[in-house]
Design the sequence.
DNA sequence: TGTACATCAGTGAACGCGCGTTCACTGATGTAC
DNA sequence: TGTACATCAGTGAACGCGCGTTCACTGATGTAC
């Protein structure tokens, strides 16, 4: 029977969710390596061995949390991007950058889980690759739109690309933004590393004593990097 | 007696070093949170309680390692900087950047310990602040020298600084580079975050699938950021 | 130079803890006829 | 609609592990006179 079958299945899906939620709560409270199956089970009023009906091991639970974290920040970034008019290129850059930072500040341990030091003894399986690429893909799409836009004049100037780097850029562009010149794409990659570097420094305490609190510095850097990647200023005069 | 007194003290200093070395070895092999007093003692052929004559707790040993790591990368960066003629501004920028990366690649777990996610339940004590600032100080000194140099024309253009950010920049400059304009200093801070962001991404696996191996991308980004902070090109014609 | 005492390094046993994982089991839910 | 069987979720006990830290102790090293 369909309905009754779904009853059991629905219970399973719900509990799986609850386990992940409780695990996320502990992650937020204690950090990744303090996360223990036993504590999760305890909090859920189950016996620890029961969790093995849902996750074959602690590492699998961790993997699920990592994937969820990537999906969460990816969805947030995509939504922020989509909320702007596609032609508002600089606005999209800002929106994406702010979305990353806000997500990081509201989910510091999940951020640390995916962008901080790798959990020792744990190596991320293949399944995390696609979710992990949502943010960079959003940036490459923006790069592509900017390149295609007449209002924008991304600079292809700058240090020359070595053959190796040019080939790497070519390979990335081929999949997501055919025709996007390597010198432009590499500028976005630099912007991408700057964005996450800045947020990691803020979150991990390396800005204390200089530009902390970092709100203004962040906004300032975002504008700088928007210039750097060649996005047009705020009120472009449409030709 | 002086000589005999030093005998005991020398033994103590030596063992303290050996403990740290063994701890570092385990750090390199297993990562920070796998580091255990018992394992260190075991490896050293001591009983675990003996370590308490040298470090009052596990956290103190961790602190010692963190300080050593900061001192190690700081010394490396300062040496690389000092090895260039002071007037070779871009060469110094390159040397500093490369020194950071090389240190990170040869000491990945120590890098993760200080620049990765904070160890949960452990908060870095005040004593780490000074060692931690050696790298940023090297950069600010370079900024100061570049600002003072006639061959260099650091740009004060760019997005305006908010009053808060201007004040923060002013405070940093006051201590290390009086007179250095905020817009210039903030460019260096952006460069600093980009540098570490790029290295963290490389080390933590986020460049896989795009610009990994990252050697060429790294060199390219270093040149870009040298331009960004306004360092003169390689063969400056002395005025 | 020799003795009496104080300091210190290292021992070994113990405390109390929490962890991941396995396994045989019970009882409820679902399926086939 | 009712019964016989199969599947599945959750239990409870247990295994084996390693950890940080404390404490009373022994014996060696250092100090004062």
Sequence:
């Amino acid at each position: 029977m369909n309905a009754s079958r779904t009853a059991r299945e629905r219970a399973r899906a719900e509990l799986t969710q609850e386990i992940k939620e409780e695990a996320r709560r502990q992650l937020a409270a204690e950090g990744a390596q303090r996360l223990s199956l036993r504590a999760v089970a305890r909090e859920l009023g189950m016996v620890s061995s029961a969790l093995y009906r849902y996750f074959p091991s602690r590492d699998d639970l961790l993997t699920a949390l990592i994937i969820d974290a990537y999906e969460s920040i990816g969805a947030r970034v995509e939504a922020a991007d989509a909320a702007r008019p596609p032609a508002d290129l600089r606005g999209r850059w800002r929106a994406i950058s702010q979305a990353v930072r806000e997500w990081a500040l509201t989910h510091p341990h999940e951020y640390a889980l995916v962008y901080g030091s790798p959990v020792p003894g744990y190596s991320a399986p293949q399944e995390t690759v696609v979710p992990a690429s949502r943010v960079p893909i959003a940036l490459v799409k923006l790069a592509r739109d900017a390149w295609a836009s007449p209002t924008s004049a991304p600079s292809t100037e700058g240090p020359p690309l070595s053959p190796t780097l040019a080939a790497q850029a070519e390979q990335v562009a081929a999949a997501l933004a055919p025709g996007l010149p390597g010198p432009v794409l590499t500028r976005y990659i630099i912007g991408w590393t700057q964005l996450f570097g800045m947020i990691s420094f803020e979150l991990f305490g390396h800005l204390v004593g200089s530009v902390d609190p970092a709100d203004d510095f962040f906004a300032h850097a975002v504008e700088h990097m928007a210039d750097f990647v060649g996005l047009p200023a705020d009120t472009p005069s449409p030709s």
